[in-house]
Automatic annotation (TrEMBL):
GO terms for cellular component: endoplasmic reticulum. This is Prolyl 4-hydroxylase subunit alpha-2. It comes from Acanthoscelides obtectus. It holds the Pfam family P4Ha_N. Residues 167-255 form the Prolyl 4-hydroxylase peptide-substrate-binding domain.
Amino acid sequence: MFRCHLLIVPLLFLSQVRCEVFTALADLQELLNTEAVLIHSLENYIRAEELKIDLLKRYADIYNKQHNKATEDVESYVANPLNAYTLVKRMTTDWQEVESLITTDVSKDYMANISYAKENMKFPTDEDLNGAAAAVIRLQDTYRLDTASLARGELNGVKYSSELTAADCFELGRQSYNNGDFYHTLLWMREADERLSREQNKTVDKGEILEYLAFSTYKEGNINLALDLTNKLLEMVPTHERAKGNKVYYEEEIQKGSYKKKGDDETDDIITNEGVTIVRKYIVLSLQWETVW
Ligand SMILES: *[C@@H]1O[C@H](CO)[C@@H](O)[C@H](O)[C@H]1NC(C)=O
Ligand SMILES: *[C@@H]1O[C@H](CO)[C@@H](O)[C@H](O)[C@H]1NC(C)=O
């Protein structure tokens, strides 16, 4: 695993971490090389699929023209032996070619190239993603950066990078969630929601944001708001099984008035997952938070 979390650091303490930074920058440079190969493979693959689709379109065109001509005057068409011949040919040998083209898998060669790149070039892991996200969160905390400006790519009022999409913010929230950091999960999920509402081409599903928001809100001690968010999610997706289970749980907890603030007794947390699974054991065993969902 390489340390891409140092990416952000050079902006602020270039001198202190210089040698570490160079290692990280070299790593990132290598990642860009890998990415170039991926893009190249993807573009080649798209071209191959387009070629295949173009060919199929041409077949469809020819079939349509012939067919329309036949249906204009069916009787005289079928009376002509040449037409009879071409009709039968179209539906036998020609059609076999169409079928074989449809079933041709053009993806294999390109996937082979992609797999080669993943195995032989520098390729980031999920751990790297977690590390890079954690570095952003650390930066945010250290400099008390406001989530919205950071999402705009601004550090202390200076624009350093392009804006984050709703999906980028969502992923920062999800990574925080996986680290059991519900405070930052909330900040980034709210920012994701905010950005999503302005996005023309939506980059993430609102239901997923609400789900993380609700559970983190609950973990942060606000069970009433967690219930509101869950209800909102159920308005959008009435059949959402986990949300239904969580709603019942939150309502029961509110009624009992026995809800404990975070940090009290984690083992009391029981959120039904798919109706039956109990979260508690995951918390106790400190397994991946992702398992909860
Ligand atoms: C696979 O990668 C090699 C080397 O970059 C390239 O020459 C070849 O055209 C690629 N093949 C495909 C199917 O993209
Ligand atoms: C949204 O997607 C459409 C179709 O791909 C594209 O033409 C348009 O530019 C996109 N809009 C934005 C704001 O990215």
